[in-house]
Amino acid sequence: MHAIRPGFRPFLFPIVRYLLLIWCSVWALAVHAGTISYAVDFLPTGFSVRNTGSQPAYALTAWTLDATGWWKQGRVVEGDPATLSPGAEVRWSRPPLPPGIATAIHQADPLLLVFFDAAGSRFAQVAWRVPPGAMASPLPPLPVKREGSALVIDVPAQAAGVVATSAIRLADPGVVRLTRPFAGHTPPPYPARHVWKTGAAMRFDTGQGLRGAWLVHELASGELRVQIVPDARTTGSEQRTRWLEWARSAFGWIAAACAVVGALGMVWGTVTLRRNPV
């Protein structure tokens, strides 16, 4: 058994402290942003919305479709939607749809929740009183492409079973919106219904932020299917230059590499000083 030379163990403490300092610095880089999400309960004469996220939502509004297919804002019955803290709840009422409404998207009765985060960015979430099915085999999702700020859906041969498509979306004006005062609530864009037998492609604007959309497909069988088109860019990325975006993702690895090199250098220096004392 080899004995540890006197004085070697105390010299390890600065190295341990150095490694802990570097580790804490790297760990601090992984800052997790809060989330805003909702639990929705549909009631006979309305619905309730509870914030199940970790961050408050501001200026929350709830929109349902009226008989003409336009979004109509719900009336608040209980709670304060101006600032909805985590765990808080708001209740809305909505008038019943008149009988005889046979539009497919009315059958699903979507609820569009529009809200703002602490930075002033506008977001939306969708809930369904009668959830449509998710897009699945043998019917593949319709191909989607972007042309500038527009979202374009072509008519593929394999999607012959799709009769019409309605798009639920919320155009994102981009970071320019954050430089202006809050202008109040504007109704979401009309969920235009596109009939595919016309042979034309479906096109609608998603704003400079390249926001995604919910596509509600009506099949020839009468069923509904939902295809979610994700956002084309991470929210907030347009506020940063490309080099800063790269540096943000690479800085963690750079810091970790520096920590390893620094630790090895200190160990090498320790061994060298012990072998060749000054």
Topology (SSEs and partners):
Layout: H1 8-29, E1 38-43, E2 46-51, E3 57-65, E4 71-73, E5 75-78, E6 83-84, E7 89-93, H2 104-108, E8 110-116, E9 122-128, E10 133-134, E11 144-147, E12 150-153, E13 162-169, E14 193-195, E15 202-205, E16 213-219, E17 224-229, H3 242-275
Parallel strand pairs: 10-17
Antiparallel strand pairs: 1-2, 2-7, 3-4, 3-6, 3-8, 5-7, 8-9, 11-12, 12-15, 13-14, 13-16, 16-17
Helix pairs in contact: 1-3
Description of the structure:
This protein has 278 residues and is an alpha+beta fold. It is built from 3 helices and 17 strands. It has helices spanning 8-29, 104-108, 242-275, and strands at 38-43, 46-51, 57-65, 71-73, 75-78, 83-84, 89-93, 110-116, 122-128, 133-134, 144-147, 150-153, 162-169, 193-195, 202-205, 213-219, 224-229. The strands form 4 sheets. Strands 3, 4, 6, 8 and 9 form a 5-stranded antiparallel β-sheet that branches. Strand 1 and strand 2 form a beta hairpin. Helix 1 (8-29) packs antiparallel against helix 3 (242-275). The longest helix has 34 residues, at 242-275. It is extended. 19% of the residues are buried. Mean pLDDT is 75; it is low at 1-12, 26-32 and 235-244.
